[in-house]
From TrEMBL:
It comes from Lineolata rhizophorae. It catalyses: 4-fumarylacetoacetate + H2O = acetoacetate + fumarate + H(+). Keywords: Calcium, Hydrolase, Magnesium, Metal-binding, Phenylalanine catabolism, Tyrosine catabolism. Its cofactor is Mg(2+); Ca(2+). Residues 158-426 form the Fumarylacetoacetase-like C-terminal domain. GO terms for biological process: homogentisate catabolic process; L-phenylalanine catabolic process; L-tyrosine catabolic process. The lineage of its organism: Eukaryota, Fungi, Dikarya, Ascomycota, Pezizomycotina. Substrate binds at residues 138, 152, 253, 257, 363. One of its GO terms (molecular function) is metal ion binding. This is Fumarylacetoacetase. The keyword Calcium applies. It is an enzyme of class 3 (hydrolase). PANTHER family: FUMARYLACETOACETASE. Ca(2+) binds at residues 136, 212, 214, 246.
């Protein structure tokens, strides 16, 4: 792990310690052009300014590629490959270390500090990647089982294929937005009374708007059409992880998802955190995922059983009146399949992935009370309510509610590896008709 101490002030308990160095895209009032940065403490290091002032003078491997730090997305940097990501991260750690071997780069360079070290409160974050395609998986076993029990009963909660492959569907990349972007309540077809014989829908704003606590992984290596990414190489194709809220309209979903799966119930908005935590930073927190009672086929077999991450995840809901409740505490370890397994399965038929493609894990839920990753599970589809404090309760989200995800690895407050926040506020549905 990285050195614990830095010459630069990093507040105790910051998710962006020297052990982290996550990458993102920022702009500022004085320079509106988006460009790459890393988060450290409560500041961002502007990598365009850092590179243009010879900040990478002692890292020869990146010098021919410094133009990537002037791009408006991380795609070009990610395409350089994981070995380059690793050395760039380690170099930045060494520049900030208390005993830095490169004091002249930044520690003793007050002019560059003033130009390149920007308070996070004063920067605007943007989507870190240009996302070509987005695939959402469903590999949170506890969530899948709980939802299956709600709709089909315990005997048929999981489909026969569930433990043999990472179930997934293709989502809508155009509605993936960065944390802080408001999410408008969608309208669509809902079935008001599923028990009536004649099933006739009505058009309505969603009355069962929900969030889904997920992790997302960005692809950093393309494969040719017809050439799968094999499991022993799949990890090399993953740049890093973000937190993800795949907002869901449960009433629209329950009417439309048979036979082809979610459509309008999911495509209206997906929020992600702005800082991408590199796989190298997460390496110390690898743990075994959920035990699979089935033997997976050869193309998905991983040698290392520790293939997911112990990321402490929390969900807070803040109402329009300001009442806030922490409704979920769980862990990123509650997954049946790893991201390399998802990628190997995604490409086994020859699907070509591109740099910047995004994969979602599916909702992450634990087994205990208070560890469920969505309101559908927690409220048993609206039958019981969750307390927000101040006397407010929720079955599903109301207009003005703000949902915030946080995620962090580790217990030592000087070496936390965290994601920051993934936040979105619910805006009222558009009124499309006057009657």
């Amino acid at each position: 792990m990285a050195a614990e101490s830095s010459w630069f002030h990093i507040p105790r308990g910051s998710p962006f310690s020297l052990a982290n160095i996550p990458f993102g895209i920022i702009s500022t009032p004085s320079s509106a052009t988006p460009r790459p940065a890393i988060a450290i403490g409560d500041h961002a290091l502007d990598l365009r300014a850092f590179a243009s002032s010879s900040g990478f003078r002692d890292l020869s491997v990146i010098q021919p590629h410094q133009a990537v730090f002037s791009e408006p997305t991380l795609n070009a940097f990610a395409a350089l490959g994981r070995p380059v990501h690793s050395v760039v991260r380690k170099y930045i750690q060494s520049v900030f270390a208390a005993d830095t071997p490169y004091p002249e780069v930044l520690k003793a360079n007050s002019a560059l500090q003033k130009e390149a070290l920007l308070p996070l409160a004063e920067v605007t974050t943007h989507l870190p990647f240009a996302i070509g395609d987005y695939t959402d998986f469903f590999v949170g076993l506890n969530h899948a089982y709980n939802c299956g029990v709600l709709f089909r009963g315990a005997a048929d909660a999981l489909q026969p294929n569930y433990k043999h492959l990472p179930v997934g569907y293709h989502g809508r990349a155009s509605s993936v937005v960065v944390s802080g972007t408001p999410i408008r309540r969608p309208c669509g077809q809902i079935l008001e009374n599923p028990k009536v014989e004649k099933k006739t829908p009505v058009f309505s704003p969603s009355r069962k708007l929900d969030y889904e606590l997920e992790l997302g992984a960005f692809v950093c290596k393309a494969n040719k059409m017809g050439e799968p990414i094999l499991i022993d190489k799949a990890a090399d194709s993953i740049f890093g992880l973000v937190m993800m809220n795949d907002w869901s309209a449960r009433d629209i979903q329950s009417w439309e998802y048979i036979p082809l799966g979610p459509f309008n119930a999911k495509n209206f908005g997906t929020s992600i955190s702005p800082w991408v935590v590199l796989m190298d930073a997460l390496e110390p927190f690898k743990v075994a995922g959920l035990e699979n009672s089935e033997q997976v086929l050869r193309y998905m077999k991983e040698e290392n059983k520790e293939n997911v991450y112990d990321i402490k995840l929390e969900v807070d809901i803040k109402s329009k009146s300001g009442n806030t409740g922490t409704v979920t505490k769980t862990s990123g370890r509650h997954l049946l399949f790893s991201f390399p397994q998802m990628l190997a399965h995604h490409t086994i038929g020859g699907c070509p992935m591109k740099v910047g493609d995004l994969m979602g894990s599916g909702t992450i839920s634990g087994l205990e009370e208070g560890s469920r990753g969505c309101l559908l599970e927690m409220t048993e589809n609206g039958k019981v309510k969750v307390s927000l404090g101040g006397g407010e309760e929720r079955a599903f989200l109301e207009d003005g509610d703000e949902v915030t995800f946080t995620g962090v690895c580790g217990d030592d407050e000087t070496t936390l590896v965290g994601f920051g926040q993934c936040t979105g506020r619910v805006e009222p549905a558009l009124k499309l008709y006057s009657d």
